[in-house]
Design a protein that fits this description.
The protein is α+β, with helices and mostly antiparallel strands. The protein contains 28 helices and 7 strands. Pfam families: Peptidase_M3.
Length: 701
């Protein structure tokens, strides 16, 4: 340990004295217009890289702001697009390490740099000369002569600066910057607390009888996890969704199910050093004050001002329209489960730790559909091949694996993406599929490099998941739900790979948060098409395809458990919105959650998908705050969009996929999303398709 500490200090000194050799700052070289040098990065590089990158970016901003020529699109807006490349590269590495490689050493650096980054951003936003130039371009008669894309980019800069406080007086600007730095500190603490609970808490099983009901793949994964914890003759259930959900589905040990469930849903809520309740209260206060400074009624009104929904009231109206039929469906689902429990002689009331277990029994009884049986056909590598095939059929993409590409962890694999007809390289796709300490839970997509025509850059994107490794050399089996999530995240990646814009700030998927989930939720619908299941759902032992009888059962059961799935999501989205509509009130998060769910009539058998103390979407940054409704908003659009295929030649209709690419995937933020959708669909989206897909009561309209 001492030698490691000495090495770290030596590296830190070396990195701090020679920023010219710092890999976080260097222009990427090699193939595809340059590749990120992940293999050269040390945690000690981050602090000096931040200082050097922000200093360089500040010099560029000062030059643009101090330009003596009259402001125009080229010397102001385009100049800003070209500035800050070193800082952009730094942020790419920083975000990757924060999400995927967050050990205790990096977390100290992260806690130091996040408030500094917030302060740097505020300094740029609050540069009066810079904003005056942006405003002059935005309000000029010359704007009307620019291309629609150039007008959209100018609008984006102007709106972003205004929403970030560029028009405030000097006193308000100082306070706003202070708020943003404090928020950055709290976001980092919140994230690190959740990660600590996920890394440090787990269930150790030492008796084989406690494994009863678990599929062999989960037992193997638990054994592998125990080995990572250096526990002999044991099995470990990790405190992540990819481990907990299947355990709750299959374990026959009710006491252990309850223990696992409580461990998972109480992350960040145990009254210890990792408790997030006080942090949430502080974040909400700071957001409310910021919204008031910026002239908005609440944080929710601020966040939705430039989204598709436009107002919290419109978002709430949609959620409430879906909530009632979803809760009604839950009552039916619970009654079905309760009947099975009674028939089996179990003297119990269905509790949250029972829901998945008894739902699986109902699934087997009603549809003769066994998740364990299906999982034998859901090989991770084969599902990935299925995604590639769909991308080829819809968008003419091909994927070729790449060797000897720098990566930040041995689990990461890389593919070159090409247009099948022309052979042109479209982009590069990274895949980081497995859970490990220091990696946040869940699944997500990242953009490593923005596509743009200014410098001819092709996109680099990643998909990141948390599947559990089994025995070395054996295929990783995933659940039906996990396979669906895999396709969802790949939809985000295809959005990024399809980008065809001039300016990097407008590239796909840099669109409104209540539109960005549309392409990802749309791609989920191809996972269960016969073409995918018949070809890529192959048994891991026999290699035989999923039997047609099972395919038919899967399709019949598509809306099964839709009450549970909708209610656990909507509960989170409604609590998120209601929290941020409270304004400056001091919020006790646990109490607010409890009382809000009670007023909504939340079924006692379900909890929020993301309870407030672990709700990373809304408290790890501002991205989805007052915006978790985006998933249901986007799913209305995606359900409606898929009917465009089914009304035409079917899911693989070439003319419809071409329109989708032309008007949605490739255009990024160059057009208003509502207009882009109308160009694709010929009209605005309707809610009917969503209600039908979830088998809810038809809307009265």
């Amino acid at each position: 340990m001492l030698s490691c500490q000495k090495s770290t200090e030596e590296n830190k000194t070396a990195a701090s004295t020679d920023t010219a050799e710092n890999p976080l700052l260097q222009v990427w070289d090699g193939r595809f217009g340059g590749l990120p040098p992940f293999d050269k990065v040390k945690v000690s590089h981050f602090a000096p890289a931040f200082d050097a990158a922000t200093a360089k970016n500040q010099t560029e901003i000062d030059a643009i702001a101090g330009e003596t020529a009259a402001p125009d699109f080229e010397n102001t807006i385009v100049a800003l697009e070209k500035a800050g490349q070193e800082y952009a590269r730094f942020k790419t590495f920083f975000n990757i390490w924060s999400s995927n490689m967050s050990d205790s050493v990096f977390q100290k650096v992260e806690a130091e740099l996040t408030p500094k980054a917030a302060a740097f951003n505020d300094k740029m936003i609050q540069n009066a000369k810079l904003f005056a130039r942006i405003k002059a371009v935005y309000e000029s008669d010359a704007l009307k002569k620019l291309t629609p894309e150039q007008q959209r980019l100018t609008w984006l800069y102007y709106t972003t600066f205004v929403h970030s406080g560029a028009q405030l007086d000097s006193t308000a600007k100082v306070r706003l910057s202070d708020i943003n730095q404090k928020l950055a500190e709290q976001f980092t603490k919140f994230s690190q607390h959740v990660l600590a609970d996920e890394n440090d808490q787990y269930i150790t099983i030492t008796a084989k009888e406690d494994l009863q009901g678990l599929p062999q793949s989960l037992i193997d994964a638990a054994a592998e996890s125990a080995g990572q914890h250096k526990l002999a003759n044991a099995w470990v259930i990790a405190n992540t969704r990819s481990s907990i959900d299947p355990f709750l589905t299959f374990s026959t040990n009710r006491a252990l199910r309850e223990k696992a469930w409580k461990m998972f849903i109480n992350r960040g809520d145990k009254g210890d050093a990792n408790d997030n309740n006080a942090i949430i209260t502080e974040i909400l206060k700071l957001r409310a004050e910021r919204a008031t400074l910026l002239g908005f009624k609440t944080h929710a009104h601020l966040m939705l001002d430039d989204k598709m929904a436009k107002t919290p009231e419109r978002a709430m109206a949609l959620m409430e329209e879906v909530w009632k039929p979803a809760v009604a469906r839950v009552k039916v689902e619970v009654a079905d489960m309760q009947a099975i429990a009674k028939k089996e002689g179990a003297n119990l009331k269905i509790e949250p730790w029972d829901y998945r277990f008894y739902a699986e029994k109902v699934r087997k009884q009603r549809y003769d559909l066994d998740q364990g049986e299906i999982k034998a056909y859901m090989q991770l590598d084969k599902m990935r091949e299925g995604m590639f095939w769909v991308a080829g059929e819809l968008f003419n993409f091909s994927f070729t694996p790449l060797d000897s590409i720098p990566v930040y962890h041995p689990d990461v694999k890389v593919w070159e993406v090409k247009d099948k007809t022309s052979g042109r390289t479209v982009g590069v796709w990274y895949f980081d599929p497995f859970a490990r300490p220091g990696k946040r839970s869940g699944a997500w997509m990242n953009t490593y490099r923005n596509q743009n025509k200014l410098d001819g850059a092709i996109p680099m994107v990643s998909n990141n998941s948390n599947f559990i490794k089994g025995k070395p050399g054996e295929p990783v089996l995933i659940s039906l739900d996990d396979a669906n999530t895999l396709f969802h995240e790949f939809g985000h990646a295809l959005h990024g790979l399809s980008s065809n814009v001039t300016y990097p700030s407008l590239q796909s998927p840099n669109v409104a948060s209540d539109y960005v989930e549309f392409p990802s939720q749309l791609l989920e619908r191809w996972f269960t098409t016969p073409e995918v299941l018949n070809t890529f759902a192959l048994h891991f032992e026999t290699g035989k395809p999923l039997p047609q009888a099972l395919v038919e059962k899967i399709n019949k059961a598509k809306s099964f458990n839709s009450g549970f799935n909708t209610v656990e999501y909507l509960a989170s989205a409604l609590v998120d919105m209601k929290l941020h509509l409270e304004g400056a009130k001091t919020i006790d998060p646990d109490k607010f959650e409890r009382e809000t769910l009670g007023a909504l009539g939340m079924p006692s058998e379900i909890v929020m998908r993301h309870r407030t103390p672990q709700f990373l979407h809304i408290f790890a940054d501002d991205g989805y705050s007052a915006g978790y409704y985006s998933y249901i908003w986007s799913d209305v659009i995606s359900a409606d969009a898929f009917t465009a295929f089914t009304e035409a030649g079917g899911p693989y209709d070439k003319s419809v996929s071409a329109r989708l690419s032309q008007h949605v995937l490739s255009v990024g933020n160059t057009v208003d999303p509502a207009e882009g959708y109308r160009l694709f669909r010929g009209r605005d989206p309707k809610i009917n398709a969503l209600m039908e897909a979830r088998d809810f009561a038809k809307p009265n309209k």
